[in-house]
């Protein structure tokens, strides 16, 4: 079988790499963090690893798809990196199925990951009882950002605590001549808006039934339809120039006070920071409606391509250990804008949004996994196609319900 | 047509793009301001304007600070022009852990582009020459297959190529990427030269054969020197394609040979990082300088009537 | 790719000379058969498997193709390709020819002008595509600028209209590619003997008719080259769509190459991507076959004449 031949070839190539392993645990790491802020964040990881006695060799490739393609092709070509970045998701499950990843059970056992990591993360990195990926952060892709000056100008007194208050605020912004919601009309941004509304408008149950259980009947249920109707209504609050816009251009509208709200991940703080704004001063943030709103969990992990080379395996274990140590977690996440994977760390230096995030994570009932963790990339894509069509057309809620049912059936 | 003692017909030496004065002397002086000339320049200048507008936006964006860019005014001139973005792009933009700008891969790109361009043009010319003037029974069919191959989306061929090169033990090396570029350039290069040679008069070749020229001699001493205009086009195309290639270089070149486009991609294409549009534009313009210089220089090869001139006589 | 029938075929070469030619053509044969045919066959094999992120050896019949034809996004992308293809090729040929002829008139600054027309080809589309997106965005670019100049009803928002966005892709793509067509045609024009113009002038033929009736037919091969180059560009169009619209709004500017790429890498769906690629190639094959056949018939006629 080609699969067998492939594995043998791969294994043979990796053994042949043994000769090259002289350097003190040289670790070649593929990742996609290339902007200025992200570079500073990677530096904390690299410094920590180097201080622990290893040598970090950087292999950055911008664009998540590009980086994953590079990693996959390197694995296929018999020249794998020591570690490769993926999202906390199902993206690497296929690679595991092919037997092409090393597990890091020794590190997980030693560091007690079962006890300190939140459940959604564990579910995503522990497959068939073995740990295959090391998480480095928790991102929430569905934060609500708002410009304080824009809201003040429109007469919105306080952060919306319910969906109705949110729409009321949008109405006030529209009346004041501002753009109520800054959205970049790209498929992935529409996708984020969609699942944020399924969660925050449709409710936790509707969300899980759709994304985790792929329950076809639930799509036609009352809460889900309510979310889709709200989504349809939301479209009226974006400006005409929205299609195709980059997410940072939408954030720029909020930064300059031209727009009121943006629904985007916590990486948006990088843009606010680059423009010299501070959380809580010029802009505000909330993770959902109300103090016990569910907190969406996403993030980045590193996986370890299969190798039998002892020095490489040591390097992989060292990486996993270093990445999850409390000191590295704080340093890395402060720079990255995300929050640490463990709650037993010092949050003093974090901005107010991050602190709110950590507080939310302490409450296990608020944690909820993002769609990438619950669906294969293929199904994610299929749903994305349906949603982008719904968002950009006049399709009725009935029709989109049917289309969504078709997408999750597959 | 002379026979016997004449040496191989030589090509006219490459003149510069302005034809010699003697040609102008034979026709009445054209007035610079005749309606036809004015119309001609008007057309050319309006076409140039259409082509230049995006460049204008790119340059002004690269000279503006981000504060100004966020305000939107796309066509406005910079109020506080600064060249900081250019310096950053070249030497200090972050491309991962390292923040050394795009200059890091410059020599790698050169190392990749030079042999790849030379090899792919050589094979294109050789194939075009053999196809046009020599009778090889299976050549037509193979050429057809090659042209079909030009339409294959190369991303789909990535995986089998990776396995082939890996099995050959050369995956991730400089020869690997050069060979990959030669392979993917072959259809278009062959087409260019084959069609060019199709309009070369057959008498030329026949005369050379009668003079005792063999396959290689005719190729190197007659056909290649005559092909300067099409070589100019081929260089323009191949150099640009290879210089701007990203995916093939990323996969096949190996970490020590990563071309400049990988750093360029790292500067421009962050997924969730902040985007500095002025640096992005500056980096893109810097990267495009090499092909641009080649375009300017290739002008002297767009000469007139070499083939025609050689036949007369 | 017409070969003018006046091309002179060499006499039968002595066997060892033809052997040299055969050996010289071996790399071409190897590439065509070994690499191109080989990888196409491989991808066809994968298209009947359930391959996800890595190729798999199983066999699932035509289910990937079935899924492909049920995918609306694929149908949109094929339709877009047809519209884009016709407009792009026609516009590039016309514009390229026009520019080449204009530049052939002994103009001052020909070198500079030629570089101006060619530079779009040199600059990476990742950045220029973004610039086009900004320029065509109604809030940011041309529409808002013209409106600010005092024409409040001016509308140019094709890029956010689903039924018009493909035309914006055509505009940007023509901007990028006509320079190369111009270069190919200019090289061809420079191969035309100047004495023909002198003879025509003596006969009182105006310059434009000279170009139309005398020069144009001689440009046959160059136009053929340009056409094939453009056709290849059409089938592979990818960068401009990703940079300008990301296939949006919705899926309105989706193209096959982007569909294939997304499924190959982003969605870890190698089987579906291979099926799409095979369908594309079979279509190309279907379009090429009549032409091949006509050429073979013509060659046979020439041999038996």
- CATH topology grouping of the largest domain in chain B: MetI-like fold
Low-confidence stretches of chain B: 1-27, 305-313
Please count the beta strands of chain B (DSSP E, at least 2 residues each): 0
Which architecture of the largest domain in chain B would the CATH scheme give at its second level? Orthogonal Bundle
Total helical segments of chain B: 15
Beta-strand percentage range of chain B: under 5%
Largest sheet of chain C: none
Q: From the coordinates shown, what is the CATH architecture of one domain in chain C?
A: Orthogonal Bundle
Which CATH C-level class of the largest domain in chain B is it? Mainly Alpha
Fraction of residues in H or I helices of chain B: 55-70%
Integer-rounded radius of gyration of chain C: 24 Å
Shape of chain B: flat
The class by helix and strand makeup of chain B works out as mainly alpha
Count the domains of chain B: 2
Which fold name corresponds to the CATH topology of one domain in chain C? MetI-like fold
The biggest beta sheet of chain B reads: none
Compute the separation of the termini of chain B in Å. 7 Å
Roughly how many Å is the radius of gyration of chain B? Answer: 24 Å
Q: How would you describe this protein?
A:
The complex is a heterotrimer of chains A (410), B (313) and C (305). In chain A, 51% of the residues lie in helices and 13% in strands. With 410 residues, chain A is an alpha/beta fold. Chain A folds into two domains: 2-139 and 298-362, D-Maltodextrin-Binding Protein, domain 2, CATH 3.40.190; 143-296 and 370-409, Periplasmic binding protein-like II (D-Maltodextrin-Binding Protein, domain 2, 3-Layer(aba) Sandwich), CATH 3.40.190. Chain B has two domains: 21-92, no CATH class; 104-311, MetI-like fold, CATH 1.10.3720.10. Helices cover 65% and strands 0% of the residues of chain B. Chain B is built from 15 helices and no strands. Chain C has a domain at 76-257: MetI-like fold (Orthogonal Bundle). Chain C has 14 helices and no strands. Chain C is flat. The two termini of chain C are 22 Å apart. Chains in contact: A-B, A-C, B-C. The A-C interface holds A 1-3, 6, 65-66, 68-69, 72, 76, 91, 94-95, 98, 100, 185-187, 239-246, 376-378, 380-381, 385, 388-389, 391-393, 410 and C 52-57, 67, 71-73, 130, 133, 137-140, 157, 159-160, 162, 244-252, 262-263, 265-269.
């Amino acid at each position: 079988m080609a699969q067998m031949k492939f594995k043998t070839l791969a294994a043979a190539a990796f053994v042949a790499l043994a000769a090259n392993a002289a350097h003190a645990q040289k670790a070649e790491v593929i990742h996609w963090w290339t902007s200025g802020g992200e570079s500073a964040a990677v530096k904390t990881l690299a410094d920590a690893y180097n201080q622990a006695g290893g040598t970090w060799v950087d292999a950055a490739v911008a664009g998540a798809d590009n980086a994953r393609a590079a990693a996959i092709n390197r694995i296929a070509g018999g020249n794998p990196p020591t570690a490769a970045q993926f999202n906390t998701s199902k993206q690497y499950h296929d690679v595991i199925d092919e037997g092409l990843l090393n597990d890091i059970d020794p590190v997980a056992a030693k560091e007690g990951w079962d006890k300190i990591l939140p459940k959604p993360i564990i579910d995503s990195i522990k497959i068939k009882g073995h740990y295959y990926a090391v998480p480095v952060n928790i991102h929430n892709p569905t934060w609500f950002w708002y410009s304080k000056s824009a809201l003040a100008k429109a007469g919105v007194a306080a952060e919306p605590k319910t969906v109705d208050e949110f729409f009321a605020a949008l109405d006030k912004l529209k009346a004041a001549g501002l753009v109520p919601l800054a959205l970049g009309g790209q498929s992935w941004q529409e996708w984020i808006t969609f699942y944020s509304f399924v969660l925050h408008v449709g409710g936790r149950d509707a969300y899980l039934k759709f994304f985790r259980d792929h329950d076809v009947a639930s799509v036609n249920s009352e809460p889900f339809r309510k979310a889709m109707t709200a989504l349809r209504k939301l479209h009226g609050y974006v400006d005409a120039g929205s299609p195709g816009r980059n997410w940072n251009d939408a954030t720029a509208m909020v930064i300059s006070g031209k727009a009121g709200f943006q629904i985007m991940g916590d990486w948006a703080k990088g843009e606010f920071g680059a423009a010299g704004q501070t959380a809580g001063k010029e802009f505000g943030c909330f993770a959902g409606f109300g103090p016990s709103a569910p907190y969406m969990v996403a993030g980045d992990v590193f996986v370890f391509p299969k190798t039998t080379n002892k020095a490489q395996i040591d390097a992989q274990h060292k990486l996993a250990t270093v990445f999850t140590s409390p000191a590295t977690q704080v340093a890395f996440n402060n720079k990255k804008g995300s929050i640490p994977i463990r709650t037993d760390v010092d949050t003093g230096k974090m901005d107010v949004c991050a602190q709110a995030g950590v507080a939310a994570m302490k409450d296990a009932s608020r944690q909820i996994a993002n769609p990438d963790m619950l669906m294969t990339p293929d199904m994610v894509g299929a749903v994305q196609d349906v949603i982008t069509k719904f968002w950009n057309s006049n399709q009725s809620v009935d029709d989109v319900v049917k289309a969504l049912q078709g997408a999750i059936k597959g | 047509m002379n026979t016997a003692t004449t040496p191989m017909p030589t090509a006219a030496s490459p003149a510069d793009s302005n034809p010699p004065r003697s040609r102008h002397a034979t026709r009445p002086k054209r007035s610079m301001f005749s309606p036809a000339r004015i119309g001609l320049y008007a057309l050319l200048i309006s076409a140039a304007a259409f082509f230049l507008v995006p460049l204008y936006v790119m340059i002004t964006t690269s000279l503006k600070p981000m504060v100004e860019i966020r305000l939107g005014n796309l066509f406005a001139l910079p109020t506080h022009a600064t060249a900081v973005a250019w310096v950053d792009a070249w030497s200090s933009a972050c491309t991962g852990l390292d923040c050394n700008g795009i200059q890091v891969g410059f020599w790698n790109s050169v190392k990749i582009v030079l042999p790849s361009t030379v090899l792919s043009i050589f094979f294109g010319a050789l194939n075009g020459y053999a196809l046009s003037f020599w009778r090889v029974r299976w050549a037509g069919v193979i050429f057809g297959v090659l042209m079909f191959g030009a339409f294959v989306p190369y991303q789909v061929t990535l995986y089998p190529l990776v396995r082939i090169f890996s099995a050959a033990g050369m995956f991730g090396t400089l020869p690997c990427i050069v060979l990959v570029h030669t392979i993917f350039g072959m259809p278009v290069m062959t087409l260019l030269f084959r069609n060019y040679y199709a309009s070369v008069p057959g008498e030329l070749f026949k005369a050379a054969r009668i003079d005792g020229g063999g396959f290689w001699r005719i190729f190197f001493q007659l056909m290649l020197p005559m092909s300067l205009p099409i070589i100019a086009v081929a260089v323009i195309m191949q150099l640009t394609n290879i210089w701007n290639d990203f995916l093939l270089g990323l996969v096949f070149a190996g970490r020590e040979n990563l071309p400049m486009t990988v750093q360029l991609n790292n500067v421009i294409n962050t997924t969730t990082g902040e985007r500095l549009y002025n640096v992005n534009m500056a980096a893109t313009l810097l990267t495009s300088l090499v092909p641009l210089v080649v375009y300017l220089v290739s002008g002297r090869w767009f000469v007139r009537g070499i083939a025609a001139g050689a036949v007369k006589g | 790719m017409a070969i003018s029938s006046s091309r002179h075929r060499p006499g039968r070469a002595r066997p060892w000379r033809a052997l040299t030619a055969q050996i010289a053509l071996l790399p071409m044969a190897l590439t065509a058969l070994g690499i191109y045919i080989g990888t196409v066959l491989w991808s066809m094999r994968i298209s009947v498997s359930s391959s996800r992120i890595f190729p798999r050896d199983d066999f699932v019949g035509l289910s990937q193709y079935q899924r492909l034809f049920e995918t609306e996004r694929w149908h949109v992308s094929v339709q877009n390709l047809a519209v884009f293809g016709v407009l792009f090729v026609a516009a590039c040929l016309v514009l390229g020819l026009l520019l080449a002829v204009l530049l052939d008139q002994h103009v001052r600054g020909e070198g500079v002008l030629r570089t101006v027309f060619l530079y779009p080809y040199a600059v990476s589309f990742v950045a220029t595509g973004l610039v086009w997106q900004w320029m065509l965005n109604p809030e940011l670019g041309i529409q808002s600028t013209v409106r600010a100049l005092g024409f409040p009803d001016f509308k140019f928002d094709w890029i956010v209209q689903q039924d018009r966005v493909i035309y914006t892709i055509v505009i940007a793509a023509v901007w990028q590619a006509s320079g190369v067509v111009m270069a190919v045609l200019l090289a061809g024009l420079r191969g035309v003997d100047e004495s023909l113009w002198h003879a025509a002038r003596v006969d009182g033929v105006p310059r434009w008719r000279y170009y139309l009736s005398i020069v144009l037919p001689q440009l046959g091969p160059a136009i053929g080259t340009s056409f094939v180059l453009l056709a290849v560009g059409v089938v592979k169009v990818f960068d401009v769509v990703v940079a300008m619209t990301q296939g949006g709004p919705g899926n309105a500017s989706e193209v096959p190459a982007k569909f294939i790429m997304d499924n190959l890498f982003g969605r870890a769906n190698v089987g579906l991507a291979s099926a799409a690629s095979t369908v594309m190639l079979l279509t190309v094959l279907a379009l090429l076959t009549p032409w091949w056949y006509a050429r073979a018939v013509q060659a046979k006629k020439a041999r038996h004449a």
